[in-house]
Specification:
Shape: extended
Order of helices and strands: EEEHEEHHHHHHHH
Helix content: 40-55%
Distance between the termini: 131 Å
Radius of gyration: 39 Å
Number of strands: 5
């Protein structure tokens, strides 16, 4: 109405309630037309909450978030480095994993075919396998170097050596490299065959290459812990029976029949003691 004057009905710390229902504290409430002119109709608190809600990124269901990678790998390669980006794409590719698994299977076959001969003797098959071994070592070393550049060495939580299976792979690769270098140098007094014996660990790389095998292996290792008491009981029983066997057959199988005149052992010796 003309001539109507609005007076504050309640004043509390700078907030005034006007006749007609409006409230103002340097700003009115939305939906109240009686706010003094010049004040915004939306409270700043509500506007800020709405803006924060709109800024939150939305992620589609089923899409994995990008992995948290080290900003620098081995203190040289940044995330945007083209070499590191290339190695990341290669090591995460499915075809690369298939090639590594086939290489592991190939080295397992070569270990099974290799025939050790006494006195350092060899044959054409062993010579061929020794040449193939160099190719396997180069492939595994290249894979290890690419993964270290892509993931980092050890400093970052997602680095290469922060995975226990990668530690096994790294140890096998380093032993293979050292054995090949020592074989080329031919250092006197050092037996390279002792290091080459660690090649038998290469089939364990199948576990690191197949995630399902990792789950099975971890389950087996976790199941072994409760079975320690049962294993100790079985070992105790075996020790008891071995002691009984020693008492009953002690020295019996160290004697055999021989000719009393010539003193020679019979052609088909059999135990005569007891």
């Amino acid at each position: 109405m003309d001539g109507e004057v609005r007076v504050p009905a309640l004043q509390n710390g700078g907030a005034q309630t006007w006749e007609g229902g409006g409230t103002s504290e340097r700003g009115g409430v939305e939906g109240y037309p009686n706010c003094p002119p010049g004040y915004p109709s939306n409270p700043p608190e509500a506007t800020g909450e709405k803006a924060d809600t709109m800024k939150k990124p939305t992620r589609r269901p089923g899409v994995k978030p990008p992995p948290d990678r080290a900003k620098r790998s081995i203190y040289l390669f940044r995330l945007k480095n083209p070499i590191r980006q290339l190695f990341i794409k290669i090591t995460e590719a499915k075809w690369f994993e298939i090639i590594i698994l086939l290489t592991i299977m190939g080295t397992c076959i070569s270990l099974a075919v290799f025939t050790p001969l006494p006195n350092g003797d060899t044959n054409s098959t062993n010579d061929f396998l020794e040449e193939i071994e160099i190719i396997f070592t180069v492939i595994f070393t290249t894979e290890c170097a690419m993964r270290i550049v892509a993931l980092g060495f050890i400093a970052h939580p997602t680095a290469y050596l922060r995975n226990s299976w990668n530690i096994l792979d790294f140890t096998i690769v380093m032993i293979g490299m050292v054995s090949e270098v020592l074989a080329i140098l031919q250092i006197e007094g050092f037996d390279v065959k002792a290091l080459r014996a660690f090649r038998v660990l290469r089939p364990l790389r199948l576990i690191s290459g197949v995630p399902s095998l990792q789950i099975v292996m971890n389950a087996i290792l976790m199941a072994i812990i409760p079975l320690i008491n049962i294993a100790l009981l079985v070992l105790f029983v075996i020790i008891i029976y071995s002691i009984i066997g020693l008492e009953l057959f002690m020295g019996a199988f160290h004697k055999t029949c021989f000719d009393l005149q010539t003193g020679e052992m019979m052609e088909d010796p059999t135990p005569c003691g007891g």
